[in-house]
């Protein structure tokens, strides 16, 4: 079994996906206005995913799944994700405005999708943990309101990490878990305290890719998995026996 990750799908389907016409599948929010790297991104997600991921594999999706404003509007995007191969584990991103009641979301999720919020999900001998996070202290224009949200996300992150119960951990965040200077912070200290092995995150796009924290730091492996950064190909994080 392999564990992959791919973030920032930014789907916006207004009707059930016609998978027989995948090459022409479009959303109501065209993403190519953000650059050529986003051209035909929905069909590329599908095509790359289906040849990369096996039915027994797991794919972590750390946020910005759908542009929908309500859960009802998100159902076509969630159905699209459900149709993709493997077991999918979703985390909320800053643009997932449809994500409110966890209980309501779980009631309508198609088979093959699980959501992560204040909990951990066991995959083999490992645990998947995480929280969305937010702008971090030391980031440009960090405000008192940002501090409140950041503090709340730290609480959610620790709730999730506690649920790992001593298993090896892959942690998901939507935001990069350090500021643009790469400073060690309370998030990193928390991850180290729970002996996290790998961290996957998204959120960074275009020119922001240059500040990405990648590779080994503080004894953990960091992976930026934003869709446009990876060319919408799920990235292999670990292969389990």
Q: Could you explain the architecture of this structure?
A:
The protein has 241 residues and is of the alpha/beta class. Helix content is 24%, strand content 21%. The strands form two sheets. The chain has a six-stranded mixed beta sheet, covered by helices on one side. A five-stranded mixed beta sheet has the order 4-3-2-1-11. It is globular.
Give the secondary structure arrangement, pairings included.
Layout: E1 2-5, H1 41-52, E2 58-62, H2 71-83, E3 87-91, H3 102-108, E4 113-116, E5 121-123, E6 126-131, H4 144-162, E7 169-173, H5 186-193, E8 196-201, E9 215-217, E10 220-224, E11 235-239
Parallel strand pairs: 1-2, 2-3, 3-4, 6-7, 7-8, 8-10
Antiparallel strand pairs: 1-11, 5-6, 9-10
- Kindly state the percentage of residues in helix: 10-25%
Low-confidence stretches: none
Strand portion: 15-25%
Q: Please provide the count of β strands.
A: 11
Structural class: alpha/beta
In short:
With 241 residues, the protein is of the alpha/beta class. It has helices at 41-52, 71-83, 102-108, 144-162, 186-193; strands at residues 2-5, 58-62, 87-91, 113-116, 121-123, 126-131, 169-173, 196-201, 215-217, 220-224, 235-239. It contains five helices and eleven strands.
Provide the descriptors you would attach to this structure in a database record.
five-stranded mixed β-sheet; 241 residues; alpha/beta; 5 helices; 11 strands
